[in-house]
Structure formats: C-alpha cells, structure tokens
Model the fold of this input.
Amino acid sequence: MTASALTRLHAREMAAGLRGGRFTARELLDAHLELAHAQNRALHAWVFFDDERARAAADAADARLLAARREGTAALAALPPLLGIPVALKDLVVTRGRPSTAGSRILRGFVGPYDAHIAERVAAAGAVVPGKTNMDEFAMGSSTEHSAWGPTGNPWALDRVPGGSSGGSAAAVAAYHVPLSIGTDTGGSIRQPAALCGVVGLKPTYGRVSRYGIVAFASSLDQIGPFGRDVRDAAALLQAVAGRDERDSTSSPSPVPDYLASLPADDDAAAGYVRGLRLGLPREYFIAGMEPGVEARVREAAAVLAAAGAEIVDVSLPHTDYGLATYYIIAPAEASANLARYDGIRFGHSVRDGDVLGNYLATRGSGFGAEVKRRIMLGTYALSAGYYDAYYVKAQKVRTLIKGDFDAVWDSGVDAIVAPTSPTVAFGLGARLSDPVAMYLSDVFTVPVNVAGLPGLSVPCGLSDGLPVGLQLIGRPWDEERVLRIGRAYEAITADAGWRRMEPADLAALDDPAAPTPSDRLNAARSAA
Amino acid sequence: MPSLSRADVEHVAHLARLGLRDDELTELEGQLNHILDQYRVLAELDTEAIPPTAQTIELENILRDDVPGPCLTPAEALAGAPERSGDHFVVPVVVEGAD
Done:
C-alpha cells in the first residue's frame, strides 16, 4: 500500500490492517509524518512534532502486534483499540517532558511535568502521538488566527480560516495528517472547526471527559472531545477517553456505554435507527445573517432524515438570542480567574520590571495576545465591585433560562435537536480579526449548547460555494450515544451523495514547498483591506 | 449599564495585572464598549425570580479519600521556574525591610 493510500484510510481500517499484518504501525506513522511535515509550511496545523517519541511508540506497537499475531485471534482481539493509530493532541494538553503552549507566548518554553488524563488514556489505548496542533491562544477564538505562532489554513481553501479554536486539530484530520485528533470545546471550538473543515467533531456532555492536565479556559464550560473523518472513528476516540477520573471532580461517574456497539457498519442497519425518532428543528437557529447555502444544506439534511422515517418537529429555544451575551460574560469571567496563574514566577514567560507588581504587569502585558487581553479585561470588569450583579449574576440567571429552553424541548418528547453548526462556511483569513463582535457571531449556534452543558456533534452535510457545511446534532445530557447514532444514520443515508467523494480542494496546493504560509496569506489579506 | 471611560479601562487593566500600552488602552476602550453594548440585550429579561446556574451537572461535594497520592518532586515543580534558589522560587522583596 502506498504512503498516500495509508493516510486515506479510516482509523478502524488502519486498525484492521495493522492486525492483519498488511502494514506496520511504523509505516503508518511515517506516512502521516511525511505528509504532515511536507505540508506544515502551507497549512500550519502543527506547532510541535514529536517524531522520535512517536516512532518509538509505533515500534513498540509493532512488537505487540507481532507477538499477538503469533499467539492467535484471542490475543489480537485483546489488543487496545487504537494500537498504532496516529492521534494528534491540541497544544493545550499537558504531556510530560514535552512542550504545551496553548497557543500563547506566555507558555513559550513550558515543558509539562506530568501527563494529562487524556494523554494517559490515549497512550493506554495504544495510540501514537505525532505532535500537537495549533489553536487560538488559550482556546479563545473562532478562527485559529489568535495563535501566537501564526494562523492555520483551511485545506478546502487556503486563504480561509479552519475555524477555531481547535483549528489545527480539524485541519490536520481534513488534510489526512492524522485520522483522529483531540480538541476542546468551550463555546464551539470542536464543532465549528469540524464544520468549516468538513470533518466530524463531538463536544461531549460537560463532565463526560476528565480535564485533568488541560490548560483551563472557562471551567464551567470546557469539555474535551474527538475529531475524525467519520462518526465511527470519532466514537472510537471518545470511547478511549471518556469516564470518571478522580483528578477532575467534575468528571462524571455515570457509566460510559459501548458506543461502537450501536454504530453498525451496514448502512441499511445504521439508517434504520432514525425511523420514528422525533427530531426538533429550532426556529431561532434560522436567522437573518445566515448564509442561504448553509440554511439550504441544513434543511435538506432534515428532509433526508424525514424521508428515512424521522419525525421532524418545529421547536422553539426562545432565549437563543441571549446566548452570545451570556456566554461572553461567563466565559471571560471564568477565564480572568483561571489566567491569574500566569504570573511569571513559577513557569513560562517572565519579565522582570522592578517590584512584584511591575513583574506581573510586564510579564502579562507582553505574554498575552490581544484577544486574551480583551477577554481578561471583560471578565475582570464583569466580576468587579459594582458590576458583579449587573453582569455576572445576570448572565448566570439567563443561563438558567437557556438551559430551561432545552429542558422544555426534551420534556416535549423530542429525542435530539437538528441545527446548523455555524451560520457561515469558512470565512477569509483576516476577515473578522478587526471586529471582535463579528468573530463572536461565529459561535451563535454553538455557545448555547455549552451554556446548557449538552452534547453536540457536527457532521458534514454538503457544500456551499465549494466549502463544507456542518450539521449540528444536539442531545440530552449524557446522550452522546444517540447523537452519534443519528450522525451515523445520516452518513449511511447520504453514503452515495456526490459531495462525499470530494476531497478538500486545496490539498494539492499544500504540497508546493514554496507555497505562502497562512501568515503570509493573512498579511496579504490585511494589506489588501 | 454604563459605558467604560478611559480611566475605567486603566483601572480594570490594573486589577487584571495587565501592563498595557497607550495604543492598547485606546483600542480596548472602543472594543470593550462595543462588546458591552451587546450585553445590553440581557436587561430585556426579567430575571428577578430566576436562580443563577453556576454549573449544569448534578454532581456536588465530590471528595476523594484523604490519603497522600503521587505528586511532583521539588525538582519537577521547579523545573520551569524562571529563577530559583535551592528548592524555592525567587520573587522580588514583597515586605519592605524583611530581607
């Protein structure tokens, strides 16, 4: 099998090929590393490569595979599910002895003293980590342009953003640099880049995955989840990382189901799941300012699900219009507290300027980027004396109303909500950088799901103007299984659709060793504006 | 909800321990007021009788057993320190005359 063909496989096909001895984990890793290195100039999905450690892990996987093949079928079946599969980590996952910057200058040179829970779980599942992916600084952003290390491109159109904040993880999966990656989602940071890059991304229920060892942004909203090129692959990665961990007191003891057991390979069996399901289409999610092509694809997807036997019902989430304001008070408030730890004393960037106060001002003033400063300022203001009730407490009360909207829909017998993930397809590099409010609008359909703590899955549902559109499936708390089954059913129903055969349009351009970098493209867009 | 003056922006930056340049303060004054304008929609809602929600899952008082577990060694904890002295982080004198 050629290196290029290896990278096109789904993770489960890679797993089967490794077990069958058709290729080795080392060959699989090298194929991915070669592609990722060659294209990183033009795509900039990666901020850290860990070739040496990854090759050692791949060789160790090969030794286990060889031993198990000699022992027989039972030994092969007992191997961990992701053995030898490349999985990228977002650059805010702390790993022992390796850098994690969270896209920030203030963490330049920081080397992890321990492994995050998900890093342990990914390793225990046998996965091989080729490196870490680019992101908006401290996960604050919807375009990955707020990375201190420069932006990431979108493999579908290199002059456009991949979404954010987990843009590197989404772009790396879309460009076949890895079959699977890890992201985090505080207000849409997995689902929106998944939509804009044409891949699958899941934000699990708040508490489903332990956040121990993840650089914190907004602690009542942050959640970790998988990216993959289809629902079953994403579900396999969720399976590997979900569940209770004593080191994160918000991680839930509720049992983790066997997700893959309910996601059949057979398309007819998978499609049949939606027969008789009640799926809500929220009228507030089809708003002015939404691109007609996005609305058309989402309504077509709902029609396709209806034709397969689902009952599509009109539902209302009346406080949707208040979601952005609520989120953009709560998230910055929590961030301003979480980011107080970056003091230049214990680790990371440090600038000395006289006394302790001078050191704080100089370290933080030079270490944080513009968007992070904006959020810290907003959060500090919202929590400050005299404004705490007017902003922070008010937002927490509206949070109750937003959560109540979803509860009312579930109480009416609706099984899941079907909605757009993002109001637009991928926008141009630089297009929203000078207007924070325009950037925040990217998150209008994703933030209510975080505010309410629910699971949300984005699956590709076609193209608009040649760019991917994401269909968002929102479920009841802890009901990842159902949204995954609906997502799998939708894949099965649309298996023969022409757009499913389309590859990202700019993949070939990524191979040009002299291609402009995403930073070059961003600078060109800015000087043209 | 009032708007932020330049002095307010400087005060908040001080509370947040952010050393900002004049041009940053100027830009933030405009941007923060624009963002605060978007927050005004919340005032439309009567939330007098609505309890606040701080977190969404029904978990509370999760405590672990009070037994020592693995933790970082002093060398590991200090490995990233910009400046150290023995097993200590170095900071400037905080209390005058206490050296």
Residues 388-411 of chain A form the longest helix (24 residues).
